[in-house]
Structure formats: structure tokens, C-alpha cells
Specification:
Layout lengths: L9 H9 L6 E5 L2 E5 L1 H17 L7 E5 L5 H11 L4 E4 L6 H11 L1 E6 L2 H13 L5 E4 L9 H8 L4 H10 L5 E6 L9 E5 H15 L6 E4 L6 H13 L2 E4 L6 H8 L3 E2 L3 H16 L3 H14 L1
Parallel strand pairs: 1-10, 3-4, 3-5, 5-6, 9-10, 9-11
Antiparallel strand pairs: 1-2, 7-8
Helix pairs in contact: 1-2, 1-9, 2-3, 2-6, 4-5, 8-9
Length: 300
């Protein structure tokens, strides 16, 4: 019988032991789904941990993750940090350089991972004012720009026994992540969340969803927000494959492709979908318009 998870990264080990999936996480790459099995994610996250150790990351160091869209690389870096006792700091991609500078100074960010070239250039300007930011890595491939794959490569030579010792030292009550508020009431505030904060949420939520192992979930709410991040860990715990939508605009198309059993949403998103459908109906003419509103009335 597998041990009940007590740290965030235990969810992946639990899935690997109880119901390893052919598709644990998937993201679109050049128009096609690139899928990672549970074993793939486990191996890559350990490589990431060992790579981070090799470049001097230590327990308690703060690592920023900034991405315009959800993607498997996000999870691999997240797990890679947590397994060595580092603290990751997910940040919204659309904030100003001034906000980045404030958050980086407040948190004490040592290293950052970003999704694309625009964010890399933005953080270079922040780095000029905040030299404590030692390195910025990018998920996309751009010649001459430090790639997150460099860390993965370094991790191939690492000592797994050493990593296991680091994992064993991570206390469930220790700080796992800092999530910053939007700053609408002054400067952003870093909310301190422990491994136990996430794990207790996941284990308490699992009976309410009744997810069957081997099912599929589409993810599109931002991973830098605590809700989708908790849901992602719930998917790992329940054996649900995670498919990341390409963008907010492609949600409908991605849902048609994946045919998921579950996805999480917020009311405003559902309202926008409803408004879009109603606007299309209002543009119809004659009998088609009549049939459309008859159908809406019937549904109501």
C-alpha cells in the first residue's frame, strides 16, 4: 500500500506507484500533443532537481516561474525546485517591470524560468536593477539564450542518492511556495504556503470529485494561481491525465480534441462563453434566429 502523500512532490511518486499513466501531462507543440508519461515526468523532475543543485541552488532559495500559458515545463521546474527544498515563486506574466522588481526584491529571487523571449527581455531589464537575480532561463528554443534544457543536461550527471537525501529532509510544514497578490490594495503581498497547505487541500477535495484513474482533464486557468495549481496536484493524486490548453482562445477546440472527463473554470469565463454564444444567436436571421431562441428557452 502506497504511503499517503505529505509533500507536494509525493503526489507524483504516488501516481507512479499506484496508477502510472501513459499521459501524465501533455502540451501542444507545433500543433501536436506532446505527451509525458508518469515515468517521464518523474525522471525529468529529478534531472531538474540535480541540475539545480549543480548550479548552486540550495534549500530555501527562491526560484521564479513565469509563463504566458500552462505547459509541462512549468510542472517539471516546480517539482524540481520542491524536491530539493527550494521555494518557487510563480508570477503573472502580464505585470509591469516595476512590479517584477518589487516582487523579486521582496522574495529574494535567485533564478527565474520564463516561457518566451519577450519575458526574457523584460527580466533582463529587471536584472539590471536587481543583480541578485543570477540567471534567467527560457522554455522556448532561441539561439544564444540560456535554455532550461541546460539545467536538465547538467542533471543527467547528478547523484540520485544525494537527491533522495534532500527529498527526505523536506518537512511537510516547510515553505513550498510564495504566491503574490495582485497588489490592488498597495504593494503585492507574498502569501506563504507550505507543502501541507497544498496536500491537505488535495486530500480533502479528492472525495468530492470522484475522479477515476486514467481519465483526462483539460487545464487552462493559470498555474501561477493557487486554484489551478491545487487542481493539478489533485489530478496527479487521482491519476487524471493533464492536457494544457494552448491558450484561452483555443479552450473549446482543445476540449473537443481531448474529450476530458473534467476541467476547472471560474464563473467569469463561463459567462464570456455564454455571451459569445448569445451574440452569435442574435446575429442570425429569420427562422434560424427563431429556432435558436426557441432552443435557449427550452433549455431554460
Amino acid at each position: 500500500m502506497a504511503t499517503t502523500p505529505t509533500r507536494i512532490f509525493d503526489f507524483l511518486s504516488y501516481q507512479l506507484e499506484i496508477f502510472p499513466l501513459d499521459t501524465c501531462i501533455a502540451g501542444k507543440e507545433n500543433g501536436k500533443w506532446k505527451k509525458f508519461s508518469t515515468q517521464d515526468v518523474y525522471d525529468l523532475s529529478h534531472q531538474m532537481s540535480l541540475g539545480l543543485l549543480s548550479v548552486g541552488v540550495e534549500p530555501g532559495d527562491k526560484i521564479a516561474i513565469i509563463s504566458h500559458n500552462n505547459r509541462p515545463e512549468w510542472n517539471i521546474v516546480d517539482l524540481g525546485c520542491l524536491q530539493i527544498g527550494a521555494v518557487d515563486v510563480p508570477v503573472y506574466p502580464t505585470i509591469t517591470e516595476e512590479d517584477y522588481l518589487y516582487i523579486f526584491k521582496d522574495a529574494g529571487i535567485k533564478m527565474a524560468f520564463v516561457s518566451n523571449l519577450d519575458l526574457y527581455r523584460k527580466l533582463q531589464k529587471v536584472q539590471e536593477k536587481y543583480p541578485a537575480l543570477e540567471k534567467i532561463y527560457i522554455f522556448e528554443n532561441h539561439e544564444g539564450i540560456p535554455s532550461w534544457k541546460e539545467i536538465l543536461e547538467k542533471g543527467k550527471e547528478g547523484d540520485l542518492d544525494k537527491l533522495m537525501a534532500y527529498k527526505d529532509q523536506v518537512d511537510p510544514m516547510s515553505l513550498a511556495t510564495l504566491i503574490y497578490t495582485s497588489g490592488t490594495t498597495g504593494n503585492p503581498k507574498g502569501v506563504m504556503l507550505s507543502h501541507n497547505n497544498f496536500v491537505s487541500n488535495v486530500i480533502a477535495s479528492e472525495p468530492r470529485l470522484h475522479l477515476e484513474p486514467g481519465g483526462k482533464g483539460v487545464s487552462f486557468l493559470p498555474l501561477c494561481h493557487v486554484f489551478e495549481r491545487m487542481i493539478t496536484n489533485l489530478y496527479l493524486y487521482s491519476g487524471t491525465g493533464i492536457y494544457y490548453a494552448e491558450s484561452m482562445e483555443t479552450i473549446g477546440e482543445n476540449i473537443k480534441e481531448v474529450k476530458p472527463e473534467v476541467f476547472s473554470a471560474v464563473p467569469r469565463l463561463l459567462e464570456k462563453i455564454y455571451e459569445k454564444i448569445m451574440a452569435k444567436g442574435a446575429d442570425l436571421k429569420g427562422i434560424k434566429k427563431g429556432l435558436f431562441f426557441w432552443a435557449v428557452g427550452l433549455a431554460e
